[in-house]
Amino acid sequence: MSSVEASEPHIPDDADQTPLLDVSALVPGAHVLIKDETRYASGSHKEPAARAVVARAMADGCHRIVLGSCGNYGRAMAIASRAAGISCTVVLPAGKSDGAEWMRAAGADVRLIEGSYEDAVAQSRSRAMADGDYGVADGNVDGQYAETILRGHGIVVDSLAAALLTPPTAIWLPAGNGTTIIAVHQRLRALNWPTAINGVGSRGNNAMLTSWPGVYRMLDPDQVRTTEHNQPLVNWHALHGPEALAAVADTGGALYGVEDEDLCAAASNLAQYNAFPTPAGAVALAGLLTRARTTGVAPGAHVALLSGRELDSPGQPS
């Protein structure tokens, strides 16, 4: 393992632009904080990971990064690649993704394909392998820089450690591919924090949620339902699913499903705090609010991560 691979996560200089906001008024009797990771230039919490991948790829002599996305990671990689001066190709599922024109405006080569997010990842990986001898890197979350991506996502925990006097009781995260969950778990263990990880996704539309608390099983692609609100949250195969299930269980946390109306309500509630996530970007808070309303939440501080911003909201790149 190289010295770059072994290095500890580093909090970006602009981490203070992704504030920790007290929204306890939304859950009377509880201490609730949101970490607004949508305020990076790309509007995505995945930007630190994208920057780390770009740095590694350039150090390895690559001139292009190829990846599959349904929105957030593609926007983050487009911004990170433009800033570093490296080419970027993002493969998106047509009709089941967002931000294609935004990514093109940021300088990315965007390819639309028929199929799902999983199909986009598979096609992007084929492109990277076909051109691998010519300096093209596989930037997918389970690609050649998977460990680098995990360290990038783990930065959020170090940012919390710098801001909080004591570890929170729980951290609420988007389920997705399970990548963020694994990354946060690694950093929690490194810091000896006894914080529970709760993952949240679109009910019935993510293989981790339908598997929990049992053995991971992929869904039939025809089983999932994509809407305008849940689209970034739909995964018939979560690429890091088994590992993420184990990580959640290890912390004593759980996985929760929410409906579209829960996503929309959570996003709407945050406008008063000058936070403007998409409904899908507010999924972690939606899970916390739903849990608080139905069965209550454990005592102590709860942190929910916001993961994606409306593209036309304040702070959007010009």
Descriptive notes:
The structure is a single chain. By secondary structure, this protein is of the alpha/beta class. 37% of the residues lie in helices and 16% in strands. The protein has eleven helices and ten strands. The protein has helices at 3-6, 47-59, 72-84, 100-105, 117-130, 146-163, 179-190, 207-211, 241-251, 260-269, 283-294, and strands at residues 20-22, 31-36, 64-68, 87-93, 109-113, 136-138, 170-174, 196-202, 254-258, 301-306. The strands form two sheets. The protein has a six-stranded mixed beta sheet, sandwiched between helices. Strand 4, helix 4 (100-105) and strand 5 form a beta-alpha-beta unit. Helix 6 (146-163) crosses helix 7 (179-190) and helix 7 (179-190) packs across helix 9. The radius of gyration is 18 Å and the shape is globular. Its cofactor is pyridoxal 5'-phosphate. It comes from Nocardia callitridis. Keywords: Lyase, Pyridoxal phosphate. This is Tryptophan synthase beta chain-like PALP domain-containing protein. Residues 16-306 form the Tryptophan synthase beta chain-like PALP domain.
